[in-house]
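ARCHIVE RECORD
Type: protein–small molecule complex
Small molecule: iron/sulfur cluster
Source of inputs: curated submission
Record status: active
Notes field left blank by submitter.
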Amino acid sequence: MMTKQNPSTIVWLQGLTCNGNSHSFFNYEKLEVFSKNFHILHHPQINTQYSLHDVLESDFSFDFLVIEGALSKNPSILSRFEIPFTKIVDNLEKRARYIICAGSCASFGGIFRLNNPEEITGAVFNGKKQGGYWSEQKKNVINISGCPMHPEWFVQTLFTLRNSSNILLDEYKRPKEIFSYFVHHGCLRNEYFEWKVDCKDFGLKEGCLFYEHGCQGPMTHANCNKILWNKTSSKTRVGSACLGCTEFDFPKHALYETHKNMSLPATPFGISKRAYYSLAGIAKSFKIERLEKRLIDENN
Ligand code: SF4
Ligand code: SF4
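STRUCTURE (tokenized, with ligand):
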């Protein structure tokens, strides 16, 4: 007979954050299923069993410490209830089985880091560099980057860890099951990308957003066109560029413009410049009438 597993326990901590990852999680479609399997002991945004003070004054261990937001060791940048954040993190990290960095700020430092990369970082990365809040590569840290992270990525990772400790991570400590894909995979505009047909404007169904509109789908590790947002759509599906929000260098500047070198865009991840530009030149030389037309309404 199968024995019933107790719910796994979570303490959620917020550093420098806009709360976006919490809100993304609150939009998870099957929160009732989640709450049968996980018990949130503390979350600063919702009524939970314990306050932060209660948790800090106790000594129980728990399964997941979720960190949302960038971190800083400087108490004038980050403290809670006049307690330096270092004291809070140092108290909690020892008691957690896993540390889950929810979103790109906790993973890499994100937008907050841009102002002060010396003092504001992710948990184990400072942008691309290893060594953030913790200088050593802690084995039990898992990054779920994204601005915000997709709620399915978060829940899928927690369920995987709840049921088995075996999770494969990439070089940035992100679950490979999610981050081996590129946003480009599954994008409905792939045919336009292949034949180098540009999107004429944001919001249109036709054309690829890579050439003029800043799409970073071919360089961005995430499965947004496989696990859709709200089970419905993605940025590129609605005619907006992928901004590369899961990567260590997010946000770059001028997000809706394609950055070019000698009028050529960057090459897709892992493809040699020479090969790409030769193929692109050939593809562009064909004019495919079907791809130049509107898909649905010729008059609009
Ligand atoms: S819009 Fe972006 S993700 Fe879609 S095909 Fe073009 S480059 Fe790839
Ligand atoms: S499409 Fe790109 S910018 Fe949008 S959520 Fe996915 S990875 Fe982030």
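CURATOR ANNOTATION: The mean pLDDT is 94.
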